[in-house]
Amino acid sequence: MNLWLLRHGEAERRTSHDPDRHLTDEGRQEVARNARRLLGESLQVILVSPYRRAQQTAEVVRQVLGYEGLCETHDWLIPDADPAEALRQLDLRTEANILLVTHQPFVGELAGWLINGHRSDPLPMSTGSLARLEGEAVAVGLMNLVTLHHP
Fold it and tell me: CA 101, CA 141: separation in Å to the nearest integer?
Protein backbone atom coordinates (compact mmCIF):
# COMPACT_ATOMS: atom_id res chain seq x y z
CA MET A 1 0.00 0.00 0.00
CA ASN A 2 1.13 3.53 -0.80
CA LEU A 3 -0.07 6.42 1.29
CA TRP A 4 0.89 9.90 0.12
CA LEU A 5 0.54 12.75 2.60
CA LEU A 6 0.35 16.28 1.24
CA ARG A 7 0.21 19.32 3.47
CA HIS A 8 -1.73 22.18 1.89
CA GLY A 9 0.23 24.96 0.23
CA GLU A 10 0.99 28.32 1.81
CA ALA A 11 -2.23 30.07 2.82
CA GLU A 12 -3.14 33.67 3.56
CA ARG A 13 -2.18 34.63 7.09
CA ARG A 14 -5.34 35.95 8.69
CA THR A 15 -9.04 35.61 8.18
CA SER A 16 -11.90 35.82 10.59
CA HIS A 17 -12.54 32.09 10.18
CA ASP A 18 -9.52 29.75 9.84
CA PRO A 19 -11.26 27.13 7.66
CA ASP A 20 -11.88 29.83 5.03
CA ARG A 21 -8.22 30.76 4.43
CA HIS A 22 -7.24 30.68 0.74
CA LEU A 23 -3.99 29.51 -0.84
CA THR A 24 -1.59 32.23 -1.86
CA ASP A 25 -0.05 32.27 -5.35
CA GLU A 26 3.15 30.91 -3.80
CA GLY A 27 1.10 28.16 -2.14
CA ARG A 28 -0.36 27.11 -5.48
CA GLN A 29 3.15 26.98 -6.95
CA GLU A 30 4.44 24.89 -4.02
CA VAL A 31 1.67 22.38 -4.51
CA ALA A 32 2.10 22.24 -8.29
CA ARG A 33 5.84 21.50 -7.93
CA ASN A 34 5.23 18.55 -5.63
CA ALA A 35 2.12 17.37 -7.48
CA ARG A 36 4.34 16.75 -10.50
CA ARG A 37 6.07 14.10 -8.39
CA LEU A 38 2.81 12.14 -8.51
CA LEU A 39 2.78 11.94 -12.31
CA GLY A 40 2.72 8.29 -13.32
CA GLU A 41 1.50 7.11 -9.92
CA SER A 42 -1.75 5.17 -9.91
CA LEU A 43 -3.72 7.20 -7.37
CA GLN A 44 -7.06 5.58 -6.64
CA VAL A 45 -8.53 8.22 -4.35
CA ILE A 46 -7.78 11.66 -2.95
CA LEU A 47 -9.09 12.26 0.57
CA VAL A 48 -9.26 15.94 1.51
CA SER A 49 -9.88 18.13 4.53
CA PRO A 50 -12.97 20.35 4.20
CA TYR A 51 -10.88 23.50 4.84
CA ARG A 52 -10.71 25.79 1.82
CA ARG A 53 -6.90 25.76 1.52
CA ALA A 54 -6.89 21.94 1.45
CA GLN A 55 -9.70 21.87 -1.11
CA GLN A 56 -7.74 24.32 -3.28
CA THR A 57 -4.60 22.21 -2.85
CA ALA A 58 -6.46 19.10 -4.03
CA GLU A 59 -7.75 21.03 -7.03
CA VAL A 60 -4.20 22.03 -8.01
CA VAL A 61 -3.16 18.37 -7.75
CA ARG A 62 -6.10 17.29 -9.90
CA GLN A 63 -5.23 19.87 -12.55
CA VAL A 64 -1.52 19.02 -12.64
CA LEU A 65 -2.22 15.29 -12.90
CA GLY A 66 -5.32 15.50 -15.07
CA TYR A 67 -6.86 13.36 -12.32
CA GLU A 68 -10.55 12.61 -12.79
CA GLY A 69 -10.87 9.89 -10.17
CA LEU A 70 -12.51 9.81 -6.79
CA CYS A 71 -11.96 12.83 -4.52
CA GLU A 72 -13.68 12.80 -1.12
CA THR A 73 -13.93 15.38 1.67
CA HIS A 74 -13.59 14.18 5.27
CA ASP A 75 -13.75 15.95 8.64
CA TRP A 76 -11.17 13.55 10.11
CA LEU A 77 -8.46 15.38 8.11
CA ILE A 78 -8.70 18.81 9.79
CA PRO A 79 -5.68 20.33 11.62
CA ASP A 80 -6.56 19.07 15.09
CA ALA A 81 -7.97 15.70 14.02
CA ASP A 82 -7.17 12.56 15.98
CA PRO A 83 -4.71 10.27 14.14
CA ALA A 84 -6.41 7.28 15.76
CA GLU A 85 -9.63 8.21 13.96
CA ALA A 86 -7.69 8.52 10.72
CA LEU A 87 -6.37 4.99 11.20
CA ARG A 88 -9.89 3.70 11.79
CA GLN A 89 -11.10 5.45 8.63
CA LEU A 90 -8.16 4.34 6.50
CA ASP A 91 -8.62 0.75 7.69
CA LEU A 92 -12.04 0.79 6.03
CA ARG A 93 -10.58 1.72 2.64
CA THR A 94 -9.92 -0.89 -0.04
CA GLU A 95 -7.69 1.28 -2.25
CA ALA A 96 -3.95 0.59 -2.33
CA ASN A 97 -2.86 4.08 -3.50
CA ILE A 98 -4.30 6.93 -1.42
CA LEU A 99 -3.43 10.62 -1.24
CA LEU A 100 -4.39 12.59 1.88
CA VAL A 101 -4.51 16.40 1.58
CA THR A 102 -4.46 17.85 5.06
CA HIS A 103 -2.78 20.09 7.68
CA GLN A 104 -0.27 20.36 10.49
CA PRO A 105 -0.13 19.32 13.25
CA PHE A 106 -2.27 16.36 12.16
CA VAL A 107 -0.23 15.27 9.12
CA GLY A 108 3.12 15.29 10.92
CA GLU A 109 1.75 13.43 13.90
CA LEU A 110 0.01 10.80 11.73
CA ALA A 111 3.13 10.21 9.63
CA GLY A 112 5.41 9.97 12.65
CA TRP A 113 3.06 7.52 14.32
CA LEU A 114 2.81 5.32 11.22
CA ILE A 115 6.59 5.30 10.74
CA ASN A 116 7.94 5.28 14.31
CA GLY A 117 5.12 3.69 16.26
CA HIS A 118 4.69 6.66 18.59
CA ARG A 119 3.40 10.22 18.38
CA SER A 120 6.33 11.94 20.06
CA ASP A 121 8.39 12.23 16.86
CA PRO A 122 6.20 13.88 14.21
CA LEU A 123 7.42 14.08 10.63
CA PRO A 124 8.37 17.69 9.77
CA MET A 125 6.18 18.89 6.93
CA SER A 126 6.21 22.47 5.74
CA THR A 127 3.45 23.89 3.53
CA GLY A 128 3.30 21.98 0.27
CA SER A 129 5.39 19.05 1.57
CA LEU A 130 4.69 15.61 0.12
CA ALA A 131 5.56 12.32 1.85
CA ARG A 132 5.17 8.81 0.51
CA LEU A 133 4.72 5.99 3.01
CA GLU A 134 4.66 2.35 2.04
CA GLY A 135 3.63 -0.77 3.89
CA GLU A 136 1.53 -3.91 3.86
CA ALA A 137 -1.28 -1.88 5.40
CA VAL A 138 -1.80 1.42 7.22
CA ALA A 139 -0.54 0.36 10.62
CA VAL A 140 1.20 2.08 13.52
CA GLY A 141 4.96 1.67 13.30
CA LEU A 142 4.79 -0.59 10.27
CA MET A 143 5.00 1.88 7.39
CA ASN A 144 8.21 3.04 5.79
CA LEU A 145 8.98 6.57 4.72
CA VAL A 146 9.95 6.22 1.05
CA THR A 147 10.26 9.89 0.13
CA LEU A 148 9.76 13.31 1.68
CA HIS A 149 9.79 16.34 -0.59
CA HIS A 150 9.61 19.93 0.55
CA PRO A 151 8.78 22.59 -2.02
Answer: 21
Q: Average pLDDT for consecutive 10-residue bins of the chain (151 residues)?
A: 98 87 97 97 97 98 97 98 97 97 98 95 97 96 97 89
How far is the C-alpha of 119 from the C-alpha of 19, rounded, in Å? 25
- Map out the domains of the chain with their CATH numbers: 2-11+19-149 (3.40.50.1240)
| Bond from prior residue into 105 cis (ω within 30 degrees of 0) | yes
Q: Answer yes or no: pTM beyond 0.90.
A: yes
Q: Are 132 and 4 in contact (CB under 8 A)?
A: yes
| Lateral strand order in the sheet of 45-48 | 70-73, 45-48, 97-102, 2-7, 130-134, 144-149
